[in-house]
């Protein structure tokens, strides 16, 4: 029987590698980690075995490291906790690169524990050995290359290394990479290694459940003080970008809505804002910016208050860049510039609720604008043109039908969901990978998010994005809540119809759009998912409503590749009052 300390930490382990692995994972648990995602591998056995035996850690598995990284990203975003990723050595680590890039740009607390060969096995032909030191380059906020476990190195070295790395992660949220070098043996032998003498100097750590060292942050966020009263006297507008989607962020986003009412300022909320479908939001502002009267009225704004960055609407970002603002404030908890057009005059690094709580009270002001009535015409035109079975029609309908949480893919789905929909009575949590805005790992990210949610999860993505992450359909069978995957299949990258790419000869089709001619019916069968292929808005609504009730369903929406470009072009012409091209 293995001897345990009074707090349950084992003093005997399979190998000395397992001793360091146990110290690492126990300290991470004490610092708040609850979820570990693992891919199979031999060199990572000490970490895998310890994680599987830890009573406080939930383990999630996937055979594809690229999908594994994005699953961890989703779990971390949904739980608002750091998530550990364990991989073996070699290209397994390199497959995490896209997820690590996204985590850095989005400020997601991933902790990569990569197993590695000892240094003497590098660059000499040893199997599965690559140089993993700082493999993620500038895309991590902390990197440590640990030496192989050695009884001559104090156990406190391992614990304090973890403590410092996690503290840096709390101050500058993003991914950590800890490279763990293990010499053989990697698996249990006949006898356990008694580490009681080695662990004894840890003293109190062995009898408590607190971390080895406590890092405190005493830095207070300065408030806007008296400048706010001057700022608030101007004609202003409020733009809301990404506000991450847990229950607390719904409340934070609602405080922004109340602030816009108090100030009498128009609210333009991105689909990632958690208040996109609130009645206070000018929900069709992206399309209404086609209307010169709407744009001219909005241009009367003198100051801009923005919460959250990474706006999806290109028309809105262009409008912001062209305005001669008297002042621009950006409130965002991530310490990143998030100012692509260099308009921001004051940068406040804090959550929206903290900023609003520090504001002095001002009397409620009468709205200075007529934007609601000017937007009404755009909304009417949109409703008239969303009655056909198309990507526009399906996305518009999905915005009303979706329940629980909606994860939107990049490329066309993000743009469509940001344009379409109407105000809702019930809130809808909407999330996206808009850090690097890649089309990889979207299914895995959505699955990870679903692991933290007791409601249904819907993902809407393009066909090329679905092909990029096809392996992650295998994860969905493990879901405990209904999962709906809506694939908009326009046979390739139809967004290129809307970009100024060369169209001579084969250039557009062969080198940009790259049609594939594939259907997802047999992919659904291969991975044991339900499947539906509606051919009208009514059958889509019926299939989607049924899919929300039980199991995992892939709904394939097959449409002509040119249709969405034509639909959006015609809608823009109608809003601008220009004749439709013949």
Please describe what this structure looks like.
There is one protein chain. Helices cover 36% and strands 15% of the residues. The protein is an alpha/beta fold and 582 residues long. The chain folds into 3 domains: 12-206, 3-Layer(aba) Sandwich (Rossmann fold), CATH 3.40.50; 225-372, Rossmann fold (3-Layer(aba) Sandwich), CATH 3.40.50; 387-576, Thiamin diphosphate (ThDP)-binding fold, Pyr/PP domains (Rossmann fold), CATH 3.40.50. Strand 14 (405-408), helix 16 (412-419) and strand 15 (429-432) form a beta-alpha-beta unit. Helix 1 (16-30) runs parallel beside helix 6 (155-171), helix 3 runs parallel beside helix 5 and helix 14 runs antiparallel to helix 22 (563-576). The longest helix is centred in the N-terminal third of the chain and has 17 residues, at 155-171. The model has no long low-confidence stretch (mean pLDDT 93).
Alpha-carbon distance between the termini? 83 Å
Helix content: 25-40%
Class from secondary-structure proportions: alpha/beta
Percent of sequence in beta strands: 5-15%
Annotated CATH topology of the largest domain:
Rossmann fold
Quickly count the domains.
3
Low-confidence stretches: none
CATH architecture of the largest domain: 3-Layer(aba) Sandwich
What is the β-strand count? Answer: 19
Whole-number average pLDDT? Answer: 93
Quaternary state reads single chain
Strand order in the largest sheet: 3-2-4-5-7-6
Largest sheet: number of strands, sense, barrel closure = 6 strands, parallel
Q: How large is the count of helical segments? A: 22
Q: Quickly name the level 1 CATH class of the largest domain.
A: Alpha Beta
Sum up the overall morphology in one term: globular
Please state the CA-atom Rg, rounded to the nearest Å.
26 Å
CATH homologous superfamily caption of the largest domain? Thiamin diphosphate (ThDP)-binding fold, Pyr/PP domains
Domain Thiamine pyrophosphate enzyme TPP-binding: 423-557
InterPro entries: MenaQ_synth_MenD, MenD_middle, THDP-binding, Thiamin_PyroP_enz_TPP-bd_dom, TPP_enzyme_TPP-bd
Domain Menaquinone biosynthesis protein MenD middle: 197-408
Pfam families: TPP_enzyme_C, TPP_enzyme_M_2, TPP_enzyme_N
């Amino acid at each position: 029987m293995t001897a345990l300390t009074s707090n349950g930490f084992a003093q005997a382990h399979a190998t000395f590698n397992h001793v360091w692995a146990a110290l690492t994972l126990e300290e991470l648990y004490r610092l708040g980690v609850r979820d570990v995602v693992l891919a199979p591998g031999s060199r990572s056995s000490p970490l895998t075995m310890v994680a599987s035996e830890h009573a406080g850690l939930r383990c999630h598995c996937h055979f594809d490291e690229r999908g594994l990284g994005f699953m961890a990203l989703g779990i971390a975003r949904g739980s608002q906790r750091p998530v550990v990723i364990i991989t073996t050595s070699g290209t397994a680590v390199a497959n995490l690169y896209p997820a690590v890039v996204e985590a850095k740009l989005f400020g997601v607390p991933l902790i990569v524990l990569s197993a590695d060969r000892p240094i003497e096995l590098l660059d000499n032909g040893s199997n599965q050995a690559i140089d993993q030191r700082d493999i993620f380059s500038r895309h991590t906020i902390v990197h440590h290359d640990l030496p192989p476990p050695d009884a001559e190195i104090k156990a406190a070295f391992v614990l304090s290394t973890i403590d410092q790395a996690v503290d840096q992660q709390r101050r500058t949220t993003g991914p950590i990479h800890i490279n763990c070098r293990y010499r053989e043996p990697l698996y249990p032998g006949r006898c356990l290694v008694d580490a009681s003498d080695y662990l004894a100097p840890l003293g109190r750590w062995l009898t408590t459940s607190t971390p080895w060292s406590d890092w405190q942050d005493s830095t207070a966020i300065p408030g806007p003080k008296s400048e706010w009263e001057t700022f608030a006297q101007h004609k202003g507008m409020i733009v809301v970008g990404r506000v991450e989607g847990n229950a607390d962020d719904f409340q934070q986003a609602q405080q922004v809505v109340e602030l816009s009412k108090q100030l009498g300022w128009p609210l333009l909320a991105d689909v990632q804002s958690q208040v996109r479908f609130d009645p206070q939001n000018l929900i069709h502002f992206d399309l209404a910016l086609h209307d010169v009267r709407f744009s001219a009225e909005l241009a009367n704004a003198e100051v801009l208050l923005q919460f959250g960055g990474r706006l999806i609407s290109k028309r809105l970002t262009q409008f912001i860049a062209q305005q001669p603002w008297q002042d621009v404030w950006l409130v965002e908890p991530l310490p990143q510039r998030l100012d692509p057009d260099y308009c921001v005059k004051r940068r406040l690094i804090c959550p929206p609720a903290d900023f609003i709580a520090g504001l002095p009270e001002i009397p409620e002001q009468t709205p200075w604008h007529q934007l609601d009535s000017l937007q009404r015409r755009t909304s009417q035109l949109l409703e008239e043109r969303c009655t056909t079975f198309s990507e526009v029609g399906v996305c518009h309908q999905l915005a009303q039908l979706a329940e629980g949480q909606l994860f939107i893919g990049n490329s066309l789905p993000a743009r469509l969901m940001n344009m379409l929909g109407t105000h809702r009575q019930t809130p809808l949590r909407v999330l996206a990978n808009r850090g690097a805005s890649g089309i990889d790992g979207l299914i895995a990210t959505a699955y990870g998010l679903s692991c933290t949610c007791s409601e249904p999860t819907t993902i809407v993505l393009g066909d090329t994005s679905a092909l990029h992450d096809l392996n992650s359909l295998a994860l969905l069978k493990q879901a405990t809540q209904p999962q709906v995957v809506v694939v908009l299949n326009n046979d390739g990258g139809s967004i290129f119809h809307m970009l100024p790419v060369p169209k001579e000869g084969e250039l557009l089709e062969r080198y940009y759009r790259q049609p594939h001619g594939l259907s997802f019916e047999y992919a659904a069968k291969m991975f044991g998912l339900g499947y539906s292929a509606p051919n009208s808005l009514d059958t889509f609504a019926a299939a989607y409503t049924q899919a929300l009730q039980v199991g995992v369903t892939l709904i394939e929406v097959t449409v002509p590749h040119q249709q969405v470009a034509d639909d959006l072009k015609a809608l823009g012409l109608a809003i601008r009052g220009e004749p439709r091209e013949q």
